[in-house]
Design goal:
single chain; about 140 residues; mainly alpha; 2 strands; about 5% strand; elongated
Length: about 140
């Protein structure tokens, strides 16, 4: 009886090992899965530069607003800015310092100001304000 349990246990471990290795191999060899993510990262890298403190900055000079919104949605600057929500003053400072002068920067600052005013006036709640800034339209 004990031998049977040990054999079943070892067979289960072997099966689990086999399945996990096959899944890892299939994920790493799936064409297009990793390459599309790396292509997007390489494409977005052209919009980044580092400031004197080593912080990421976004350079949207001459970039269409739609493309800037796309890059912004995946950016570390956006994540950093939203981590200070609902401190609108700090969020504006980050937008001012981490974005170069561009159509997108003007758009973002106007959106921040409008969202802040709407929130303080009670027109929108905290969750709605966060979503407005997270998913720019």
């Amino acid at each position: 009886m004990n031998k049977g349990i040990v054999v079943m246990f070892l067979a289960g471990l072997g099966f689990m090992y086999l399945v996990t290795n096959l899944v890892d191999t299939a994920e790493s060899t799936t064409p297009g899965l990793e390459s599309s993510q790396s292509k997007k990262a390489k494409e977005y890298a052209q919009y980044y530069r580092k400031d004197i403190n080593g912080d990421d900055m976004l350079n949207f000079s001459g970039v269409p607003l739609s493309k800037a919104k796309e890059v912004w949605s995946e950016s570390t600057v956006k994540s950093r800015m939203l981590s200070y929500f609902p401190d609108f003053d700090t969020m504006k400072e980050i937008a001012e310092s981490q974005l170069n002068k561009s159509e997108f920067k003007t758009f973002l600052l106007k959106t921040l100001k409008k969202t802040e005013n709407d929130y303080l006036d009670g027109a929108i709640n905290l969750d709605r304000a966060r979503k407005t800034l997270q998913y720019l339209k």
